[in-house]
Design a protein that fits this description.
Rossmann fold, 2 domains, four-stranded antiparallel β-sheet, binds adenosine-5'-triphosphate, binds magnesium ion
């Protein structure tokens, strides 16, 4: 079943009295439970697209629907996770994970149960009473992930969530995310600059063109699941990575020529 449908969407910003076309005539369909990554040159509209799906940014032209309903505002069905995890320093880990549930008026008992459950899922139960400043960047991002998951959205919108992490932590986070996704099968839209990350995590990788963002390629990642870390070394994996990298390079080069 199609879960997310973007139909011929365009996005125009106004900057200093001038119109900036960020996205032009983009259509995309994502199936329920699918993990789709978006890659593309800097400034091609990836974050803008995610914000529009999230209902945070109005659509200039076209329409986006999620689970059959047109998107016009944010909703609890779509959970967003960004690069800067923005935890509250004055709240404990458990308090941070339960925060959005508190806002939603979930009872204290259920809040605690759900927060504990998702904290356990990201492997940080032992740190429930710690404060964010006592945790590493990778741990903080796991707390942020638990916070989004605790809300139990049906769709996750992730914008370079591991972008600020070191290479090793990043790989571990990818492995954790793929395991969590495997057991929960939420629909995921994942923006990244890291092609290896996109291939490892995804069912499909969408390549955006240089600004204005258009759909340049839609590549199926037919690697077996569950994905084990060793898969990164396989010839199929490397071939997919190279193919996407070539497509991306064309766009980066063309945007340099234009600017
Ligand atoms: N609020 C805004 N006002 C004006 N222009 C904007 C605004 N937000 C984004 N833009 C412009 O729209 C284009 C797309 O921006 P966006 O942040 O979506 O790109 P991106 O693909 O996420 O880039 P990056 O990979 O660097 O994160 C850029 O040219 C940007 O300058
Ligand atoms: Mg961005």
């Amino acid at each position: 079943m199609t879960y997310l449908l973007a139909q011929s969407i365009s996005k125009c910003f106004e900057r200093g009295g001038q119109q900036v076309l960020a996205i032009d005539d983009l259509s995309l369909a994502v199936e329920e439970g699918e993990f789709v990554s978006i890659v593309g040159p800097s400034g091609c509209g990836k974050s803008t697209f995610l914000h529009m799906v999230g209902g945070f940014e109005p659509i200039t032209q076209g329409a986006i629907s999620v689970a059959g309903r047109f998107v016009s505002a944010p909703g609890p069905d779509r959970g967003m996770l960004f690069q800067d995890y923005a935890l509250f320093p004055w709240r404990t880990v458990l308090g941070n994970v339960g925060w959005s549930l508190e806002l939603a008026g979930v009872s204290k008992q259920e809040r605690l149960e759900r927060a504990e459950y998702y904290l356990d899922m990201v492997g940080l139960s032992a740190f429930r009473n710690a404060y964010p400043s006592e945790l590493s960047g990778g741990m903080q991002q796991r707390i942020a992930l638990a916070r989004v998951l605790a809300f139990e959205p049906t769709m996750l919108l992730m914008d370079e969530p591991f972008g600020a992490l070191d290479a090793q932590t990043r790989e571990i986070m990818q492995e954790e995310l793929t395991t969590i996704w495997q057991s929960h099968k939420r629909t995921v839209l994942f923006v990244t600059h890291d092609i290896e990350e996109a291939v490892y995590l995804s069912d499909r990788v969408i390549v955006f063109s240089a600004r204005p963002g258009r759909l340049k390629a839609d590549i199926a990642i037919d690697l077996p699941r569950p994905r084990m870390p060793e898969i990164r070394k396989s010839a199929e994996f490397q071939a997919l990575k190279n193919r996407i990298w070539d497509l991306l390079r064309e766009e980066v080069l063309s945007s340099k020529v234009m600017s």
